[in-house]
Amino acid sequence: MDIKQIQELIKFVSRSGVNEVAIEQKDFKITIKTNQTPTVVQATVAAPAAVLPAAQAPLPVSATETKPATEDTSKYITIKSPMIGTFYRSSSPDKPFFANVGDEVTTGKVVCIIEAMKLFNEIESEVSGRIVKVLVENASPVEYDQPLFLVEPM
């Protein structure tokens, strides 16, 4: 593993939200740790190129699992996550949710918060309509472009 591959791996780890990645080869071992909340991922691979696809493989699966299989969602607009992080429906546990099923939202209204690298980012609706479904559990990790809400346009 050369220095460029190590740098790419460090960038990937910092963007992915994991806290620790360990890679072992027959004559090489590397562990990369971040200062985020504890989540440990360990991988033993033969080549470093296998690390990136293996780490990214579950992304499409988790996104498709959150969509209803039998419901026709083609008439709805999806609000998607603009980043990797932790999804929160309110600013603190004792505050009401920003958006609930049945609520009307307008362009620019805050619908949730995504925490990424200890920064709390308010996610605003880019559409006007009525929330028909919340697709993610509160305090759950989300991926980039993962559907968060279904909105019926008005």
Overview of this protein structure:
By secondary structure, this protein is α+β, with helices and mostly antiparallel strands. The protein has 2 domains: 3-56, no CATH class; 69-153, Beta Barrel (OB fold (Dihydrolipoamide Acetyltransferase, E2P)), CATH 2.40.50.100. Helix content is 18%, strand content 35%. The chain has 3 helices and 11 strands; from the N terminus they run H-E-E-E-H-H-E-E-E-E-E-E-E-E. The chain has helices at residues 3-16, 51-56, 58-65, and strands at 20-25, 28-33, 40-42, 77-80, 85-88, 104-105, 110-116, 119-124, 129-134, 140-142, 147-153. The strands form 3 sheets. A 4-stranded antiparallel beta sheet has the order 4-11-9-6, with no helix packed on it. It has a 4-stranded antiparallel beta sheet with strand order 8-7-5-10, with no helix packed on it. Strands 2-1-3 form a 3-stranded mixed beta sheet, with no helix packed on it. A hairpin with a 2-residue loop joins strand 1 and strand 2 (28-33). The longest helix is centred in the first third of the chain and has 14 residues, at 3-16. It is elongated, with a radius of gyration of 18 Å. The termini are far apart. 20% of the residues are buried.
Gyration radius, in Å: 18 Å
Question: How many domains is the backbone divided into?
Answer: 2
Which residue ranges are poorly predicted, with pLDDT under 50 across at least 5 consecutive positions? Answer: 38-68
CATH class identity of the largest domain: Mainly Beta
